[in-house]
Every structure is written in C-alpha cells, then in structure tokens.
Amino acid sequence: MSPDTAATTPNLQTKPSVCPLDCPDTCSLSVVTDGKHIIQVRGSDANPYTAGAICKKVSNYYPDFIHGEGRLTQPLLRTGPRGSLEYKAISWEEAFDHIYNGINSAIGKYGPQSVLPLNYSGPHGQLAGGSMDYRFFHKLGATQLDRGPLCGAVRGTAYTSLFGSAPGMEPEQAGKSDLIVVASNNVTVSNLHLARIIKAAKKNGAKLIVIDPKKIKIAEQADLYIQIKPGTDIVLFLALAAELEKCSALDTDFINRWVYGIEEYLQAAKKYSLDDAARICEVPLEQIQEFLSTYTAANNVSMSVGNGAERGHSGGSSIRAAMALQVITGNMGRAGAGVIAKQGFAFPATPNKLRRPDLMPEGVRMLNIVDVAKHILDDNLAPPIKAVFIYNHNPVCTHPDQNRMRRALSREDVFIVGCDVVMNDSMTYADIILPASSHFESPDIYAAYGQAHLQRAEPVIPAVGNSLPNTEIFRRLAARFGFNDDLFKTDDYQLMDEAYDPKAPQMKGLRPSEVPLDRSLPMLAENDQELIMCKTVFPATKTGKIELYSEDMEQQFGYGLPRYEEVTQNLPFALISPSSSKRTNATFGGHKDSIAIEQLEIHPQDAQAKGITNNSKVRIWNALGEVILLAKVTDKVKPGVFYSPKGTWLKSSDSKQTVNALINSEIRTDIMSGACYNDTFVDIAPA
C-alpha cells in the first residue's frame, strides 16, 4: 500500500514500535496498521538519536516480511528429504511431542550435551533475543555456544582490553568534534544516524577522515580518504603512534594519569615507520603525512571503528591500535573526544537474572559458533551433536564455509528443529519448523550497542496465523519437558523487569516494564552527565587505567600487545563481503530485491585483464565453492580486491551458493578465534 493510499484509508492507526535488527542504531518506529496488518513502517521521534530517520530496508521490506508468502504461520513436519521443502502442517501439541521425542532420544543415547542451541542475533529485543530460551537450554544441560566469534566479539574484546566494561563515547558527541575519524565502518549502510551527525559537524567546520578499503559513500564527504589494503590497518596505526612519539605529540599528562603499558606499546609501534606503512598498506606516504598533520592540529578528535576490521586475522590488533591512537594523544576526558563504541555498557543489564545460567549443570562444554558445522560432522566428538535447535539465526547464509554447514545440516541422524518468522534457507533442513511471531506481534524491551537509549514496545498487530513469540514457545517447551519451576512461567513483563536493574539511577525510578512507549530512556552517567571516558565514566580494568598492554590478552591469546601477522594469499584476488543496503545480515534476503543476482564490484584494471565487462555474469571460485555474480566495474575498489555484499540467500546465484561458500572457516582472528570473512581469496572468469 502506498503512503498516499495509507493516508486516506479509514480505520488506520499509528502505533509506536522499535526496530529489533542487528544494527547499532536501534531506531524508534512509527507503524501504520489496520489492526491486523502492517501497512507502513516509518521512523519516529521517540528516540532523539534516531529522530525519525530509518533505513530504506526497514521501511520498504518489513510489510512483505510480516505478511509475504514466505511467512511461517503454523508448525510444520518434514515429510521429504532434507532441503526438499516437503512439509505438512501439524498442531503445536504435535510439534512439541516430536521435539520432546527427538531431543530425548538424543539425550537418552548420548546425554544432554548432545543437544545444541544454534542461535545468534536475529531480533535484538532482550526477550526474543535471549531470555526464556536460555533458561530452557540451561536447565536441559545442553551444550553452550560461544556466539561472539561469528561477529562482534573481536571488536568488543579489543575495546574491553583497553577500557574494560566502561561505555564509550556517545555518537551524538561527535557533533562537538573538530575532527572525526571513521575506520572500517560503512556508516551510511550500517550506522545511518552517525552519518547525519557527521554531516552536521562538517557544517560547523569539522574535518572528516575515512579509512576503508572501498570508497564507501561517507568517503565522498571526507577531507581525506585513505584506501587501505584490507587487513593492514594495524600497521598504519602503529606507525602513526611511533611518529607521534617522535614528534613529541603525545599527551604525557593524560598518559601518566590514565594509561598502563605505554612503554611496551610504543616499543611495539616503533617496529613500523611511515614508509613501512605506506608500503604494507599500499597507501601514498603523502596521505599518511596529511593524516598526521590534520590529526595533531585538531583539539577534539572522535573516532568510530566499525566491525569491518575484525573480519581479518589481525582484526583485534587493528582495532586496539586504532583506539590506542586516541589514548596516547589524550583525546579523552571531554565531550567530542573519544572512541565511539560499546554504549551498551551504559545499560544496567542483569543478564544472569534474565537468563539464569545457575540452572546449568557444572562442566557443560562450550563450543565456538564458527566450529558448529565441523562439530556436527565429527563422529568422534564426545558426546556427538545429535539434536540442533536453530532459532534467531540463518546459519546457512551467515556462517563461513557454507557448503560444510549444508553437509552438516543434511545428516539424517541429527534431529533438527527450526524456529523463525519466515521460511529461510536454514529452515529447509529442519525436521520440525516452528512459526515465530515477529517483534510487531509481541512485547519487548530494547537496549542498543551503538547508542545509549533504552526503549520498550508493545505489539502493534495480533500474532500472524498460529505463530507464537519466542518466550511463549520456550515456556510451552519447558512445560512439555516437565520443567515446572515458577521461573519457566514468568510472563513477558516480569522478564523485562528481570532484564535490567530497576534500582539503577538510569532507570529514573521506573521498572523496565514501565518505560514509556512514546519516548526512550537515556542511559546517562552519574548525576545525568554525558558518557565521557576519564571524566564521568572510568576504565573498568584491573589496573583502573586504560591498558595498552593487556595481561589478560597475553594470557588468553598471546597478544598482550597488538601485532600484525600477514595472511598468505593463495589466489589472485581478495574478496570482501560487507553489509548490504538491502539486508541486515541475512534478514530480508528472501525479498524480491535480494533474490536477484548479487553484484561483484571489480576494478577496471582487473576486469580488463580477465575479459569482464560491466553488468556481465562472472564466476568466482576457490577450493570451497563457486558463486555466480554480476560484475560492476568501478574504481571505488582497489585493484586485486572484490566486493560483494553478505547475506544473500542460495537462490540468488545460479550455483545455489553464496559468497559464504568461499570463506575459509579455519582461518581465525588473533583474539577470540573469530571468523575471518575478509581473508577470502578467489579467482574469477566470465560465467
């Protein structure tokens, strides 16, 4: 329905809501509904940070996502081979009986750790994203999953290695900066509202430096754009630190008061000169020198380091070195100077109260989510994985080594439950599919990881079909398994109140379930002050200082200091798979705009050498698989580097594989053993 039609249709209501997608901004929404259907999704002013602006994918694709032909509306039982889409409708009671029998069969033969919950970050509401479900699997004694290494943990751990669990600079404060540095963050696609702040800051005279392997849209506004070789950011930032010391441009007063490990850090930085950085990073020396002169001339520098850097082997080191630049120059302790990151630490979350890990038996193993496919295929794993529950996740389209994941989920001796709002590529492998209600159909409360405003939402339409909210699904599963403790009967509003500490000063005397729907609750420092590192919030580390040398990182990973380690390239081209303007990870991948063949951006020099023309089909491949894409010849990418957005579904390629099929799951990041999506090497030919 068009906006004009919606405006003239009688009996329409406009209701507040919140976007639950895996995105740092967590926008407040205004939803037009006829009481049963989502007619239109707009931005609202309830959250002053997002202030009415939302991305096109949310406004354009959500009505189809909720009411389109892919929507799951009733439980289904598989009747044909895995992946065949042969299912029949069954009742919820029958579905729970099948799940009870399938999981108990695995437990009876191999014990409860043969059961694996396979979930990630589909909805970011505290209830749908992880509440009653965690209680259920903790009580069951199922294998635990370390989810962060798939995305986010490397950047998060890099941050906490310096600052601990203290929140970083609020993005709004960048409006007070006279220089903004954006590194590995495709702001207009993945951090939309920061782009608006940058634009306003530039109008007030601020300068912008963008460091990214691709000339992304925000780079077009930059006073200096540095097109760096993927994975080499750390060398640039270490060389800059060494040069700043040489030029006596360090803030020694700030360092003496707030920094631990400065001598060790600067010694490591001296390994690289500016000439080394220019050579290794494939950046003109003049640009590095311009960075230095611009950076040292600024009084208030804010820095946004995105998740892009964490997708390479030296990712943790790159992010630590970037943030360290702000520390050694004293760009902390005042509004407009700092690192824009981890605002989520400002929320008074009580996750143990919500998720109840105390229910879990002692000694339960934890597996890295990146290794799930390998573990399912491993018959020598003790105990083996024999039951998998996929929810809030589309692993076929998001994990590295896609074909191995498909082989793992094809095992007929593994019982698989799938639960989602829509039928996606992972659901097609399930024995039982459960229809989940969307966030528009259930209450929830929302923190954020890119801004500091707590928001709550109520349902704006009734549940579609026979779908149920995640919380109710796991309540009923708990009852079917005989878990009769009161904590499995907690309603959604009680769960909200267990998600955050109502006595925390940020809550202003409100219980979480009482947060107004028409406004957000800002998470401020003591006495309602802005979040300013080393002024209103302080390093939450063992030393009480910002740790440039981290004993924890040394003990856990052998990286007490950031360190560059080059990854061997065994094929001529590097493939980067960034965020898409049409999808959030794989969400909306089933929309008609995403099902079409995806683009591959290629430099004119490489296109000419390989006989590839603009808008022609190409085949890229390595030992793991091959994908058919549509060439877009552009000088916005470097020679030798391809770009193709992540999150596509299998039918988008004639090979029925996506770029995830080409990503080696055995290459890992320096810290947290994270997935190295950007250390993917391929060859290319016309298709």
From TrEMBL:
<dbReference type="Pfam" id="PF01568">
    <property type="entry name" value="Molydop_binding"/>
</dbReference>
<dbReference type="InterPro" id="IPR006656">
    <property type="entry name" value="Mopterin_OxRdtase"/>
</dbReference>
<feature type="domain" description="4Fe-4S Mo/W bis-MGD-type">
    <location>
        <begin position="12"/>
        <end position="69"/>
    </location>
</feature>
<dbReference type="InterPro" id="IPR009010">
    <property type="entry name" value="Asp_de-COase-like_dom_sf"/>
</dbReference>
<dbReference type="GO" id="GO:0016491">
    <property type="term" value="F:oxidoreductase activity"/>
</dbReference>
<dbReference type="GO" id="GO:0051536">
    <property type="term" value="F:iron-sulfur cluster binding"/>
</dbReference>
<dbReference type="Pfam" id="PF04879">
    <property type="entry name" value="Molybdop_Fe4S4"/>
</dbReference>
<dbReference type="InterPro" id="IPR006657">
    <property type="entry name" value="MoPterin_dinucl-bd_dom"/>
</dbReference>
<dbReference type="InterPro" id="IPR006963">
    <property type="entry name" value="Mopterin_OxRdtase_4Fe-4S_dom"/>
</dbReference>
<dbReference type="GO" id="GO:0043546">
    <property type="term" value="F:molybdopterin cofactor binding"/>
</dbReference>
<keyword id="KW-0411">Iron-sulfur</keyword>
<dbReference type="Pfam" id="PF00384">
    <property type="entry name" value="Molybdopterin"/>
</dbReference>
<dbReference type="InterPro" id="IPR050612">
    <property type="entry name" value="Prok_Mopterin_Oxidored"/>
</dbReference>
<dbReference type="GO" id="GO:0046872">
    <property type="term" value="F:metal ion binding"/>
</dbReference>
<keyword id="KW-0479">Metal-binding</keyword>
<protein>
    <submittedName>
        <fullName>Molybdopterin-binding oxidoreductase</fullName>
    </submittedName>
</protein>
<keyword id="KW-0408">Iron</keyword>
<comment type="similarity">
    <text>Belongs to the prokaryotic molybdopterin-containing oxidoreductase family.</text>
</comment>
